[in-house]
Write a structure and sequence with these properties.
By secondary structure, this protein is an alpha+beta fold. The protein folds into two domains: about 5-150, no CATH class; about 155-304, no CATH class. Helices cover about 60% and strands about 10% of the residues. The protein has 13 helices and six strands. It has helices at about 5, 25-35, 55-70, 85-110, 110-125, 135-140, 155-160, 165-200, 215-230, 240-250, 255-260, 270-285, 295-304, and strands at about 5-15, 20, 45, 70-75, 80-85, 145-150. A four-stranded antiparallel sheet has the order 4-5-1-6, with helices on both faces. Strands 2-3 form a two-stranded antiparallel sheet. α8 (about 165-200) packs antiparallel against α12 (about 270-285) and α10 (about 240-250) packs antiparallel against α12. The longest helix is centred in the middle third of the chain and has 40 residues, at about 165-200. The radius of gyration is 25 Å and the shape is globular.
Length: about 300
């Protein structure tokens, strides 16, 4: 693996507006009328009806989740590792969501005056016109964009150093990169392990012996994950490849209705449900212990 050729760093910046505001006067009023200290609580007003921001916030949240889904952890300041093999999937997904965000932002701003009037009725004497940003301010508050840069090579940091210091700094940089890569590999094991564990949990019965309810997304999310993990496996980790393939063949290919006793489609097969449950438990046992950095390090070393 040549990190500078096989991957890049991507940073996603999302800005929004909560639509809430702390009201000092209301907080003091509540404290006085309940004989409480003024520090005992805070009154935060919802400036707009909850539904006004729902679609816009949902799109921003989906962009954040998609960013994490298609990348690997890298540093503590926001950059994540994007494998070249996943570049097109990432950019297509994020570009689509950013375009949707712009559409939802325009719709929200177009309805803004109406929503403020609704808030005037909801808030009564708590309404303050100066709590509300202008339309132009709102355009600036809601934004999402990503930035992609190359992964720095150790030589980039060593160019200005003398020979005496360069070898020590090189070792420190290489050790730091190894630790980040091991953390990224461990993250892939964790994602798959948690998804399989969720299948195990939902295929059990409740205290009354009834099958637990689950949504189609239980399997659909797993399918998306086993499709994405191979593109994120920069390390060529063979054990992860085998586990991912096992998850795909033994669980992800099964239709949700086949596992659901209450399915109206008539596709339910109790034998398949029992088999998938056993397979999920077996795979979960394989994933157990692979979420920590030490175990991930060992497999990274084997793959190398």
């Amino acid at each position: 693996m040549n990190l500078t050729h096989d991957a890049m760093l991507v940073t996603l910046r999302i800005h929004g507006w909560s639509g809430h505001r702390y009201d000092r006067s209301a907080s003091q009023y509540v404290a006085v009328h309940h004989d409480a200290a003024t520090t005992a609580g805070r009154y935060n007003k919802r400036l707009l009806p909850k539904a006004a921001l729902a679609a816009l916030n949902a799109t921003l949240n989906e962009a954040r989740k998609t960013h994490y889904h298609h990348t690997l952890p890298w540093d503590d300041v926001g950059a994540r590792l994007l494998p070249v093999a996943n570049y097109e999937r990432y950019t297509a997904a994020l570009d689509n969501l950013i375009e949707r965000m712009l559409t939802e932002r325009s719709r929200f701003i177009a309805d803004y005056d109406y929503q403020v009037e609704q808030a005037r009725l909801d808030l009564g004497r708590l309404f303050r016109a100066d709590d509300y940003p202008s339309r132009d301010e709102l355009r600036g508050r809601f934004s999402a964009h990503y930035r992609i840069v190359p992964v720095p090579d150790s030589g980039h940091f060593l160019a200005e150093l003398g020979n005496g210091a360069s070898e020590r700094v090189r070792r420190d940089i290489e050790q730091h990169v190894r630790e980040r890569l091991n953390g990224a590999l461990g993250d892939l094991y964790r994602r798959l392990g948690e998804a399989v564990g969720h299948v195990c949990e939902r295929l059990t019965e409740d205290e009354n012996g009834r099958a637990k309810v689950f949504r189609d997304s239980l399997i659909e999310n797993l399918r998306e994950l086993v499709d994405t993990v191979p593109r994120l496996n920069l390390f060529g980790d063979k054990h992860l490849e085998r586990l991912c393939l096992d998850v795909q063949n033994r669980i992800a290919r099964v239709e949700p209705d086949v596992l659901r006793p209450t399915a109206a489609s008539g596709k339910f097969d109790p034998a398949v449900r029992r088999r998938v449950k056993r397979d999920a438990e077996d795979l979960a046992a394989h994933f157990a212990g692979y979420f920590g950095a030490e175990r991930a390090t060992a497999h990274h070393a084997e793959a190398a």
